[in-house]
Structure formats: C-alpha cells, structure tokens
From TrEMBL:
Membrane topology classification: Single-pass membrane protein
Keyword vocabulary terms for this entry: Cell inner membrane, Cell membrane, Membrane, Protein transport, Translocation, Transmembrane, Transmembrane helix, Transport
GO annotation, biological process: protein transport by the Tat complex
Main location: membrane
UniProt source species: Acidovorax temperans
Transmembrane segments: none
Protein name per UniProt: Sec-independent protein translocase protein TatB
Quaternary structure note: The Tat system comprises two distinct complexes: a TatABC complex, containing multiple copies of TatA, TatB and TatC subunits, and a separate TatA complex, containing only TatA subunits. Substrates initially bind to the TatABC complex, which probably triggers association of the separate TatA complex to form the active translocon.
Homology family: Belongs to the TatB family.
Taxonomic classification: Bacteria, Pseudomonadati, Pseudomonadota, Betaproteobacteria, Burkholderiales
Role noted for this protein: Part of the twin-arginine translocation (Tat) system that transports large folded proteins containing a characteristic twin-arginine motif in their signal peptide across membranes. Together with TatC, TatB is part of a receptor directly interacting with Tat signal peptides. TatB may form an oligomeric binding site that transiently accommodates folded Tat precursor proteins before their translocation.
Length: 153
C-alpha cells in the first residue's frame, strides 16, 4: 500500500491541526478512521471474493476431471461386462449343445450334506463319549425342565 512513515504522519497531523482547527480535529480524525476501516474491510471482502471464485474454478476443474475418470471406469466396466457375457454365453451354449459330453467331462455337483450352521469342535465324538465329556449344552430353563421331578397324579 502507501508507505507512510512516522515523519509523514506528523506532517499530515500538523497540517490538519492548522487547516481544520483544534476543536474539529478529533471528530474529523474519528471520521477518517471509520472511513479507513470501512475501506480496509471492503478491500478484504473483495480479496476473499476473488479467492473464493478462484477456488470455485479449481473445484469445477477437479469435478470435471473426476467425472471424466468415472466415465472412463464405467466404460471399461461395460466393455469387460460385455466380454464376460459373451464368454458366459459361449460356456452355457457348450453345456446345452453337448450335455452328454459335458456330463462325461465334468462330474455333476453333489452337495456335501454338511450343516454349515452347526459349529463342530476338533475333538471326535468317540473320545468325548469314552471320557464322559458333555457334548450338548443346555440352557438353564431346559436343564430345569429336564431334571424336574415328575408329578404323580
């Protein structure tokens, strides 16, 4: 901004004291101070607005680059999906056309028959039965119901 030193300020103050007079000088100084404050705030607002618009432009450029990258990824996924669909169609057409030869080449799927929800331990059942290890856990209510004495009618 303007380079105003202490000597220049003293010169301006002396000229203002002579021109304005000692009675009006404090009021004029307050008015000049408020006007300078408003001018500084206005300049700061303009700077922040310019910075905000520059950041907005940068964000728009970044958004465009991200959108372009997303479009490229989507296109690559669509091309790979179409290739997969072609391969799948060829594989399934092979099974339907030559079902007899496919069954000879590939064995039919047989479910293992395991209950995957049941958690099994590593200790074999014959070892638990021989050593008297409890194999089934009962809840408290089930235990009471099991060992409750029978009522006689």
């Amino acid at each position: 901004m303007i380079d105003i030193g202490l000597s220049k300020m003293a010169l301006i103050g002396a000229v203002a004291l002579i021109v304005i007079g000692p009675e009006k000088l404090p009021r004029v100084a307050r008015t000049v101070g408020t006007l300078l404050g408003k001018a500084q705030r206005y300049v700061a607002d303009v700077k922040s607005e310019v910075n905000r618009s520059m950041e907005l432009d940068e964000l728009r450029k970044m958004k465009d680059s991200v959108e372009n990258a997303a479009r490229d990824v989507e296109q690559s996924i669509q091309t790979s999906a179409s290739e997969f669909e072609k391969d799948w169609a060829q594989a399934t057409s092979f099974e339907t056309e030559s079902h007899d030869t496919a069954s000879a080449v590939l064995p039919a799927y047989k479910h293992p028959g395991k209950n995957w929800r049941l958690k099994k331990g590593a200790t074999p059942q014959w070892y638990k039965a021989r050593n008297g290890v409890r194999t089934k856990a009962l809840s408290g209510a089930a235990r009471v119901a099991r060992y409750r004495p029978k009522k006689f009618h």
